Amino acid sequence: MILDYKDIAEYIITNYRNKVVEVGVGSLPQVALLLKDKLDVVVTDINEQKYAGVRFCRDDIFKPDMGIYRNASLIYAIRPPIDLQDAIAAIAREVKADLIIRPFGNEKADLIKYFKEYSLVNYQKARFYLYRS
């Protein structure tokens, strides 16, 4: 579990409406579980995941089903491996969604080629990168 999941969820609820997609949910569904009653949340992973009340779609980020991501205002990933970040950013750019990357530590791919602007957001205890579409 990540300690700042409540703050990340609060930031998303405060700043986004409609559909949000979490990429690579794995065993860290805490953010999605807090969002599910406030927003249309879809979580994806290459492996089947089941979390009560959260819509899951199996997807390979390197061969994405773009229908999953269309109409999303935000795509986010919690602790994604650096080798997945480029693929996630390309999808966010294509569907014109903002992107939040909450890194494991300080590792971050150079994703500015996909977005006009980005910033490091410090929101309460949470620290993440926000890329604006």
From TrEMBL:
Pfam families: UPF0146. It comes from the Archaea. Transmembrane segments: none annotated. Belongs to the UPF0146 family. HAMAP family: UPF0146 (MF_00341). This is UPF0146 protein MPEBLZ_03095. It comes from Candidatus Methanoperedens nitratireducens.
